[in-house]
Amino acid sequence: MLRVHLNWDNLRYNYRLLKGEVGDYEIIPVVKANAYGHGSREATLVLREEGAKLFIISTLDDFQRVRGIDDVDFLILYPDYTDRGQIEYLASHPNVIFNLYDFYALEVLPPGARVHIGIDTGMNRVGVKPWDFQRLYEMAKDRLRVEGAYSHFPIARDPEFSRRQIELFDSLTKDRGLFRHINNSEGFLRYGRIFDGARIGILLYGYGRPDVKPVKSVYSKIVQVKRIRKGESVSYDRTFVAPEDGFLAVVPVGYAHGVRRVKGYRVFSEGRWYEVAGHITMDAFMLYSPEDTFRVGQEVELLGENNRADGIAKIWNTVVYEPLVSIGV
């Protein structure tokens, strides 16, 4: 029993805010992983209307969500080069750009396929090592459309490490007529307009600085309210014991719906905060109040304007992305 609300006006606001700061510098929306749980297709359609031209996706599954949106380009980060059928299918769409990250992909990509060469300057995820870039570039440009090159910051908040990455990337790719991008959201905040564009994800979805607005909210409802006596326990392992007589509310959401089984998770409802009482179960959690504040049908905010993803991430001891991609998906 979930209700997901996506405020597309906030997405527009965030894009316009960032675009207004950089002018003709390219904002490249990241809509991979179903747009961080917001919906790849819907987010792409909104941002296309705002003028975005190039989008980042991860896999074939992501592409299937945006298939048919043919007047913008999609850079696919993890094409499965072991599956020739998949590569041929993706290459049959003129707006797909492949991440060329290894030599073996040259044997699979059809002639004329569009590529950006991924260079591993320090992330040690996919990407060709710097000492192999020149050879890969020379081999690729003879049979493919090498349109761009990119790299990625693993720790943009470290200016010295990032500076070395920027300098290395620049030395490898300058004066080749390539569209170049290394910035992510944090890099964009710290280093501004470097190279030709920035791959922006979390800032567009409302997190990373105080003037952007969250796009996603997730709600459920209370399905049962009952009295609980002092000393009664709640949920598995009896980790919560009522400190006094009070009231218990049952919400039909659990870790099957992306809410982590972690102590301290709380929800917001009708102006009040309630911490989950006891363990979150697969498909339900309980709330306790010493006061008669619950009613059946009362809406509970699991994630949103009040119960923000960055606050949940602190409770979960993780990054802000995880609540966004998990709760309500």
Descriptive overview:
There is one protein chain. The protein has 329 residues and is an alpha/beta fold. The protein is built from 10 helices and 18 strands. It has an 8-stranded parallel beta sheet. Strands 1-10-18 form a 3-stranded antiparallel beta sheet, with no helix packed on it. A 3-stranded antiparallel beta sheet has the order 11-14-17, with no helix packed on it. The model has no long low-confidence stretch (mean pLDDT 97).
Q: Which bin fits the share of residues in helices?
A: 25-40%
| The top level CATH class name of the largest domain | Alpha Beta
The description of the largest β-sheet is:
8 strands, parallel
Distance between the termini: 12 Å
Our count of helices gives 10
Number of domains: 2
CATH topology of the largest domain: the name is: TIM Barrel
Describe the global form.
Answer: elongated
Query: Are there runs of 5+ residues with pLDDT below 50, and where?
Result: none
Overall structural class, as computed from helix and strand content, comes to: alpha/beta
Spatial ordering of strands, largest sheet: 2-9-8-7-6-5-4-3
Mean pLDDT: 97
Radius of gyration: 23 Å
- Written as H for each helix and E for each strand, in order along the chain, the element string is EHEHHEHEHEEHEHEHEEEEEEEEEEHH
- CATH architecture of the largest domain, by name, is Alpha-Beta Barrel
State which percent range the strand residues make up. 15-25%
DSSP, total strands? 18
Oligomer: single chain
- Provide the CATH superfamily of the largest domain: Alanine racemase
